[in-house]
Amino acid sequence: MKEPIIKLDNIWRTYQLGKTEVHALRGLSLEIFPGAFVAIMGSSGSGKSTLLNIVGCLDSPTKGKVYLKGKDISLMAESQLAQFRGEILGFIFQEFNLLSNLSAIENVMLPMIFQGVSQEQRQKKAKEILVSVDLQDRIFHEPGELSGGERQRVAIARAFANSPEVIIADEPTGNLDSVTGKKIMEVLTNFHKKEGKTVVVVTHDAKIANYAEQVINIEDGKIVENHSAAEEYLWKN
Amino acid sequence: MEELKEYFNIAVRNIKTRSLRSFLTILGIVIGVFLIISLLSLSEGLKSTINQQLQAMGGEMVMVMPGSDEDFLTSMMFGGAKLQREDIEAIKKAEGVDKVLGFSYTGAVVRYKEESKQSAIAGYDPWKEGLDILNIFQGWSLDSGRWPSKGNEILIGSQIADGIFSKEVKAGSEMVIKGRKFIVGGILNSLGNKQDDSMIYMDMAIYQDITGEKRGTAAYAMVKLEDGLDENQVAENIEKALNETRKRRSGTDEADFSVITSEKMGAIAGNILGIIQMVIIAFASIAIIVGGIGITNSMFTSVRERTKEIGIMKAIGAKNSAILLIFLFEAGIVGLIGGVGGTLLGSLLAKAVEWYGQVHPIFYFTASVNLGLVVFGLVFSFIIGCFSGVLPARAAAKLKPVDALRRHE
Predict the structure, then answer these.
(1) How many Cβ pairs closer than 8 A exist between chain A and B?
(2) Mean pLDDT of all residues in chain B?
(3) Partners of B119 in the beta sheet?
(4) Is the ipTM of this complex over 0.90?
(5) Three-state SS across B216-246?
(6) Chain A residues touching B1 at Cβ < 8 A
(7) Mean pLDDT of chain A, nearest integer
(8) Do B47 and B192 reside in the same domain of the chain?
């Protein structure tokens, strides 16, 4: 049997707001297997972004264990974790989060710099990925000179720069119109199918969840449903 | 190594992106380093100027001048009270004193051919005997001409002969000082300091005639001791004799004159230079602190402004050390650019002062800029930059990626 690439075991995440304790995640457990396309759905305040941050090793749980490729990340030193994050994970954010003073190609090359990839290789690979997301004419443009859809495609190219095993996308179409959003999801799906990468998308949009093979619904920091898209289709019909 | 190069490039790009803020921070460092370099170079110049002056006055002679020990430097540089005829007579009579040479000087307009220049003129009393003393004990020697023997003959320093006027002044030439004609009897070899080399020497009686100063007085007196005597003992005798004369004259026993032996002169010079060094260090420290705070402030602002950027970099795999290095490079580069600007301006000021000192006949001041000082300015500013950047860089590196990404400032 396949080992899960991401495993969450009884995760609690508690924030202290003044004297009040807010439990964003309450004893959540989850397994994501390699090559899966998972959508995490939930309403605003349900804890889905907190869950994504923990899955992406951007935040640590108050209680519980997170395993990435079978390794307990709580035992890793900060620099080890950064290295691991850059190597295994690729991020796509709702607000694109590109560095405004770098051109498209420089943004894509940045994760490779942190992984010690040589300049020649960096340039070659960044160009290839940008061409594959149809940005061959925008390679040397800065984010300010690009449209929303183009920026998100640069962000996708950056997420794939180090050939990560897991792509984590937080509302990737949230800031885009429906036509552009659809195109972005097609790019993401193609990458997933072609490269066989694991994709975890957080969204509140049911249309986006339709691209996923596994849908996890969360509410008040707990998983209320975890099933495949096929099962959901069957239940609904 | 390649990573370091990339971090350096990112730092350079960040500086360029925030060009106005970077410029203002760099300006702060430029001012700080400019202050340090100009103060250090001018203080070096001041040190050598004072040393030259003291050496010129010292030798085997004892100096007597009006004003107390504390006012010694003021009276030396700016003149003021004069030794009176009775004072000079009292010194002559003191035990152990061989010869007394009165000396006064002032500024005057000197005309040579059709050209008029401001210069310093000095009178010695006694003139002919004084020249012998200066020749034997102070090492005066002639470059050309002869020792003056007539009243209207003058002796000029090497700078007066060649440097002040557009045409070289030769022995036997005619000069007009305060409307009176003089013949240049002889031209001295360099006496080792610019002040002495830029003077015109004459008989005290004539000096007092043309300047209107009171007969028999002197700005200070050089005393030659009898052979084999202890200079401190003779200095004491002179002090005693002067005190008695002054008491008789004004009824007070206030010591308003100074008897300076070479030993005492060395101590005074040491004290003065010590104070100068302290003041320089104090000013320089203030400049350094202000410049350093400027960098720290700018870097902290930069960390706050770029919190989200730091979060993004961490999310895509930047280690704490990478963030730390990028910010340190940024601070170091800002420091170094400021250092280059400050060193350049400081050196220019010092060179300008030096140039002015060379062309101006009675401005005896030099500045010293050497390679060591330039290297110090650059290395120092880079280190200050890095040092000031450490705290903000550490703060940036320690940010949790999730917290950094959430910020919207």
Answers:
(1) 68
(2) 81
(3) B108
(4) no
(5) CCECEEEEEECCCCCHHHHHHHHHHHHHHHH
(6) none
(7) 87
(8) no
Mean pLDDT of A111-137: 91
Whether residue B363 lies inside any domain: the answer is: yes
B interface test, pick of A101, A151, A170 with most B CB neighbours within 10 Å = A101
Identify the helix (H) or strand (E) that includes residue A217.
strand A214-219
Check residue A144 and report its DSSP letter.
Answer: G
Say if B75 falls within a structural domain: no
| Extended strands (E) in B147-205 | 153-156, 174-177, 180-188, 199-203
Kindly state whether residue A134 falls inside one of the protein's structural domains. yes
Inter-chain contact B316–A111, Cβ cutoff 8 Å?
A: yes
**A44 in contact with chain B, both atoms CB, cutoff 8 A:** no
Strands (E) across A62-206 are located at 63-68, 71-72, 89-92, 166-170, 198-203
- Tell me if A102 is assigned to some domain: yes
Q: Does one domain contain both B230 and B281?
A: no
Domain identity same for B168 and B234: yes
Q: Is the pLDDT of residue B75 over 80?
A: no
Rounded to the nearest 10 degrees, how much is the dihedral formed by the CA atoms of A146, A152, A153, A157? 120
Structural domain that includes position A203: 33-59+76-236
Question: B78 pLDDT exceeds 80?
Answer: no
Please report residues of A whose CB lies closer than 8 A to that of B17: 101
| Same domain, residue pair B43 and B95 | no
Residue B59 lies in a domain: no
Residue A236: pLDDT above 60? no
Q: Which domain range does residue B230 map to?
A: 82-255
pLDDT reported for residue B409: 45
Give pTM, 2 decimals. 0.66
How many folded domains does chain B comprise? Answer: 2
Chain A interface test: which of B8, B17, B314, B316 (most A C-beta within 10 Å): B316
d(CA B409, CA B305) in angstroms, rounded, equals 6
Per the domain annotation, does B194 fall within a domain?
yes
Mean pLDDT score, A84-101: 88
Q: B404 CA to chain A: closest CA distance, Å?
A: 10
Q: Are B276 and B251 members of one domain?
A: no
The C-alpha atoms of residue B201 and residue B161 are separated, in whole angstroms, by: 13
Residues B7 and B141 in one domain: no
A102 to chain B, any CB pair closer than 8 A? The answer is yes
Name the least confident of A36-50, B137-151, B281-295. B281-295
- How does pLDDT run across A50-87, given as a tens digit for each residue? 998 899 888 889 999 999 988 998 888 888 888 888 88
